[in-house]
Amino acid sequence: MALNLHLLRLFTTVAQCGSFSRAGDALAISQSAVSKGVREFERQVGIALLDRTRGVVLTDAGQALLHHATLLFTIERGAEAELQAFRGIERGGLHIGASTTIATYILPPILGLFHEVHPTIQLRLTSANTRDIANLLTSRSIDLAFVEGPVDLPGLTLTHWRVDELVIVSAPSHPLAMARKATARDLAQHRHIVREHGSGTRDVVDSALRDLGVVPVETMEVDSTAAIMQAVAAGLGIAVISRTAAADMLALGKLQIITVPGVTIGRSLNRLAIAGRPLSSAALMFDRFAESADLGPKKQQIDYVI
């Protein structure tokens, strides 16, 4: 038969408080009501749960039931907290910080879906390089942070979020685009358009190129992914950028992927947090929403694969 959860709560409170009177105080009901409820519960389950000859002492059956009841009411409290988070999210604002590629190309569709579900939340998105986003989080200027590169600052934790594929691109008229295939040596002989130092993309690309043995003869620094793509499309050099970021220009034929046999480059996109700092209701809900958003690979964790 199904357990009466009200009576189970009475029994659990008595067991945890060690007396009927203290259980009554905790539940704001009379001692007699508690005692009557526990007796009725024992009648319903068909077994003694308390040994009353020695005060309030649990029988073996009572001990076993208390274990399950404790787990059940712990889950109940968790459910109540989660519902409270849902209620709390409908008020206030949420300030998200993200490194440039994530803020420009990956978060907007997630924010759009989130806004449809929670239209009363005031959303704000700040875009900067990974180093600056980490500093904003440390100063508590933002509620959530999503970054592209490794971060090594005390008091911050990095949690994998999803994988972003990187591709080598050039203008369609570039010599490497017209070749059937390219080698690492070929890549080194051309100008590379790169992000500034402090960018997560720059860190991952530098690591991947080092493992390939590629030392570009020349580099040109640009402070945004969009500007890199325009520079590459204008024939100024080649670049390693996010396939997601390049999708539109690839589709329009303004960029072309350079294939290097046996080489695949990817990087882990991460959520950055202050260790021990609880998230607000809105931040917690968006974090879970972003984790479940189906916008591409999420589970595989790589920094670069060659």
UniProtKB/TrEMBL annotation:
Q: Which superkingdom?
A: Bacteria
User: Key word Electron transport present in the record?
Assistant: no
Keywords, ordered alphabetically: DNA-binding, Transcription, Transcription regulation
What the entry lists under InterPro entries is as follows: LysR_HTH_N, LysR_subst-bd, WH-like_DNA-bd_sf, WH_DNA-bd_sf
Q: Does the keyword Secreted apply?
A: no
Gene Ontology molecular function, alphabetical:
DNA-binding transcription factor activity; transcription cis-regulatory region binding
Span of domain HTH lysR-type: 3-59
Q: Which family does it belong to?
A: Belongs to the LysR transcriptional regulatory family.
What is the protein named?
DNA-binding transcriptional LysR family regulator
- Organism lineage: Bacteria, Pseudomonadati, Pseudomonadota, Alphaproteobacteria, Hyphomicrobiales
